[in-house]
Design brief:
By secondary structure, the chain is α+β, with helices and mostly antiparallel strands. The protein is 30% helix and 36% strand. Helix 1 packs across helix 2.
Length: 168
């Protein structure tokens, strides 16, 4: 789902390798950004529906890493690794995501956080090394649905924080 609407057609040469997912989340941008940058939050919502996450190490900074395992609802464990390549607090996170540091199939993602009234519009733009890897991610691993579910989990999580913060 695109968030553009500016009338500008996509000109990226990466269009056949790219997935773009966006969502408006009913929470302030700073809270949504914090949910991406603190492991105590990430471990609560990261991943598609039914998945849980176990963190092995986490250091949020450019060049830092998040080494973790995603546990699928069928009992399958997925080794995951992320390193952050760019951070603009409350606005943008760029990262490289794969199974490990030396994964030749690692893909790049850029997350942008923009105010949308009192809510936050988040866009997750992912570029795979090849069109074939993108197709595999979409067809075999249901990357689009998984990304939408992940942002849905984030929306529910931050809504709960916002609600309990209002009560507390």
């Amino acid at each position: 789902m695109s968030t553009t609407g500016q009338g500008t057609p996509p000109t990226s040469t990466a269009a056949d390798r790219e997935i773009v997912i966006s969502r408006v989340i009913n929470a302030p941008r700073e809270l949504v950004f914090e949910a991406f940058t603190e492991v105590r939050h990430l471990s609560q919502w990261w991943g598609p529906e039914g998945f849980t996450t176990t963190t092995r190490s986490f250091e949020f900074c450019v060049g830092g890493e998040w080494d973790f395992v995603m546990h699928g609802p069928d009992g399958t464990d997925y080794q995951e690794w992320i390193t952050w390549t760019g951070i603009v607090p409350s606005e943008r996170i760029a990262m490289l995501h794969g199974e490990s540091r030396d994964d030749p199939n690692a893909f790049e993602s850029v997350l942008t956080f923009e105010p949308d009234g009192a809510a936050t519009r988040i866009e997750m733009r992912t570029v795979f090394p090849t069109a074939e890897l993108r197709a595999e991610a979409v067809e075999k691993f249901h990357a689009i649905e998984g990304g939408q579910q992940t942002l849905g989990n984030l929306a529910a999580y931050v809504a709960e924080i916002a609600r309990s913060g209002e009560e507390g």
